[in-house]
Automatic annotation (TrEMBL), chain A:
<dbReference type="Pfam" id="PF01217">
    <property type="entry name" value="Clat_adaptor_s"/>
</dbReference>
<comment type="subunit">
    <text>Adaptor protein complex 1 (AP-1) is a heterotetramer composed of two large adaptins (gamma-type subunit AP1G1 and beta-type subunit AP1B1), a medium adaptin (mu-type subunit AP1M1 or AP1M2) and a small adaptin (sigma-type subunit AP1S1 or AP1S2 or AP1S3).</text>
</comment>
<dbReference type="GO" id="GO:0035615">
    <property type="term" value="F:clathrin adaptor activity"/>
</dbReference>
<keyword id="KW-0813">Transport</keyword>
<dbReference type="GO" id="GO:0006886">
    <property type="term" value="P:intracellular protein transport"/>
</dbReference>
<dbReference type="InterPro" id="IPR000804">
    <property type="entry name" value="Clathrin_sm-chain_CS"/>
</dbReference>
<keyword id="KW-0653">Protein transport</keyword>
<dbReference type="InterPro" id="IPR044733">
    <property type="entry name" value="AP1_sigma"/>
</dbReference>
<keyword id="KW-0968">Cytoplasmic vesicle</keyword>
From TrEMBL, chain B:
<dbReference type="Pfam" id="PF01602">
    <property type="entry name" value="Adaptin_N"/>
</dbReference>
<dbReference type="InterPro" id="IPR008153">
    <property type="entry name" value="GAE_dom"/>
</dbReference>
<dbReference type="InterPro" id="IPR013041">
    <property type="entry name" value="Clathrin_app_Ig-like_sf"/>
</dbReference>
<dbReference type="GO" id="GO:0016192">
    <property type="term" value="P:vesicle-mediated transport"/>
</dbReference>
<keyword id="KW-0968">Cytoplasmic vesicle</keyword>
<dbReference type="GO" id="GO:0006886">
    <property type="term" value="P:intracellular protein transport"/>
</dbReference>
<dbReference type="InterPro" id="IPR011989">
    <property type="entry name" value="ARM-like"/>
</dbReference>
<dbReference type="InterPro" id="IPR002553">
    <property type="entry name" value="Clathrin/coatomer_adapt-like_N"/>
</dbReference>
<keyword id="KW-0813">Transport</keyword>
Amino acid sequence: MMRFLLLFSRQGKLRLQKWFTPIPEREKKKIIREMTTMVLARQPRSCNFLHWKDLKIIYKRYASLYFCLAIENHENELLALEVIHRYVELLDKYFGNVCELDIIFNFEKAYFILDEFLLGGEIQETSKQIVNRCIESSDMLQEYYCEGETDFPGTWRKL
Amino acid sequence: CVLHLPLQEMIRAIRSARTQCEERGVIQRECAAIRAQFRQADNGGRSHNLAKLLYVHMLGYPAHFGQMECVRMIASPRYSEKRVGYLGAMMLLDEKQDASLLITNSIKNDLSHSNQYVQSLALCTLACMGSAEMCRDLAPEIDRLLRASNSYIKKKAALCAVHIVRKVHDLGELFAPAARSLLAEKNHGVLHGAVVLITELCERNPETLERFRKTVPDLVQIMKGLVISGYSPEHDVAGISDPFLQVRILRLLRILGRNNEAASDAMNDLLAQVATNTDSTKTVGNAVLYETVLTVLDIKSESGLRVLAVNILGRFLLNNDRNIRYIAMTSLQRIVGTDHNAVQRHRGTIVDCLKDQDASVKRRALELSLALVSATNIRSMMKELLLFLSSCPLELRAQAASGIFNAAERYAPSQRWHIDTILHVLTTAGGDVRDETVPNLIQLITNTSELHCYTVHKLYRALLSDISQQSLVQVACWCIGEYGDLLLRGECQETEPVQVTEDDVLDALETVLQSHMSAPATRGFALTATMKLSTRITDNVDRIRSIVSIYGSCIDVELQQRAVEYNALFKKYDHMRAAVLERMPVIEKNSPGHTNGESTREAVKEVQPAKVKQAETLLPQQPASQVCDLLDLLGGSEEPLQPNPAVGSTLPVLPVSTSSTAGGDLLDLLGGLEPTPLTPAPTVTVYEKGGVTLTLSSEKQSDSGLTVTLTACNSTDSDISSFTLQAAVPKSVQLHMKAPSGDSLPARGAAKVTQMVALSNPNKVNLKMRIRISYTSQGSAFQDTVQVDSFPEH
């Protein structure tokens, strides 16, 4: 399974953190510090895989953001790179040419998208289109409420 | 939507803060406002408030006061509030906090909500942070959702089930039937979840694994469908149809096929098909190929398939993408034991990877190369490894050096090659080798007696060019000290002859002694080597004497101590010098004193244990307690004296010392010398009769210890032979007689005999000693006794 996913800028500022196992707050902060230090120290054309404790750390840089995914030792590193790439594609489709600012100002959306793609440390949905459709529907549900309705429509049950 | 602005305004305000202090100020203000809003009645902006708090939390500021608000929001009937509430719960709460218990009811209710997106929130939160209790509570509900709901909910329920099984292992049995039937679904999301769930169940329970082996044909079918099917827009990634699902199925097949012939047979063709047909031009295809290879190598696959798998790894090694090269090597590393020959075929490529730019790839290449060294390829491999060592990154040098040493030890084609290889490593990476390297190399050199001349010449030359690598310098000094005579002789079979003078050698050692680059241990080696040369050279002994005496006042205590002892070896104990400094015998492997101790002590440790061994064979141990109370000096009765243990022995026998400090050994030998300027101890004549004179001098060692030196001289015209001394002391005093320097006293005082006696007087009784003198002169035996009542103290 995947253990955690971190997004941080080149200056080491955290933009998103998803933890797939329960970890105390202090421990999370420590891990974040270690990950940012390790990953930011890597040479430009290095291998995207690192070893850290009993985990494999897969990292990739997209523009100004580093995506850092920790997986258990028996997991497939090359597939983990594809997982990161898929998430970036989902963000890109949703925000349209996504950039770091989108994720900063709409961080809740980034989490909602992630929660449709991954679940409990595993891949939840392998189709890009289905994930996108679900997010759109959820957004509409939210919007729909904002206009004053207090009840849920019975529709959108079937995809 | 207008209501979004407050959140984004706050974010803007925080980002425009120019200092950490300013940022803290903005955040404090905002948090106060958020707190106030939490306390107010429902005002429609609750979700934005909580979102603001979550942003602040992500920056690293405390947000625990928002926990209860999350609980309240989750219970709200509004989707927007539930959504942020659940997100907040996942970010701020974990199963260890009490507040998380409060959301259990909401989750339970929302699991059966009429709207699937609300159900989805509950499922997501449960799979993210469900405690064991919550899992037990909600497991039946999850099982229900696995069987009767739409695909959207089923796929989430499957992963919830996975989480539940990880938290509460026994519940695995509950989900097995539902998992089985999910394999018939067409929806990829559900299939993927089902495969993950089945994998989890099989990994946890061997019986479950047995039952699920029956699904191998189904899994093979699904895989075939993915591999052969035409383009499917929903799941296509660079020409591969749903690589995520393919990889999970391959992994499940691996678990089911492991150690099982039938299952492995059933998947053989499929694996061959995937291995051959998968497009390897993009990473995604290689991800599938990689998983396929791992599966083939782990199950009971037929040999042809195995070769195919290893060849794929071999191709990976040539890939431009260094990620692919890296995983190829980690995989090859895993099978180098079991499929050694197959991996050997790719040795050339692996060795080329030693030159890769990437440090991770280099590391893997090193490990794999070392694993591939064999008796047949040792020479060529060693060339590559030594080349690697000279340019490898610092963090790999220690590993490379020790790997090279191990390989050399196992497969060295000749001893000279072995020594050359070690010397090469020491020259290139001497600073990174382990401490045992120096004694190990010394032992190797000692045992290769036919190469002593060659080795010392080579090391001498190395020393001349570079004295910065401590390990090398230490070994070189040791060899020069030990085999200096061979060095000076000039000719050597294996290398070109070179004229080396005594001064040259001493210059070299002095350079080491004086250099600021030399570690204290190294200087110790150099000093000892210099001293050893005093018995191996002929002309320059005085130079050695002066070096040794200079270092007698060195600031470094270790060097000072050695120098003082060596000085004493020149002065008082010159008769012992040759024996003490003679050639080392062959060191046995794993002899005591080899593997223990700090490296700084190792030089002198080398000298002592072997010498002690030598001594042991000649002399039985003399227990200190064997002081006879026969001669009760205070009572005065006559009884046989304590025998001198060293009668008849002509070698200077060393006391068997159990002291583990090098200094201690040497101290014992020379009778407890203090590192102070030497002034002759006052002597007193205790016996003078028949031309034989016995003088006594003593030196206080400690509060209760005294060393007595007896010196005998023969002023008659005839030689005296079989000269022995025996001594007795009061009951409570301990006595230890050291070996005499000899047993003959030539006529007219041509030479003296000295003998040392160590006394220990812990009870501080009045110290007396009775000495019996025996000798043969002109064919007749003589014997006499003298009592010493007082000792001149130094």
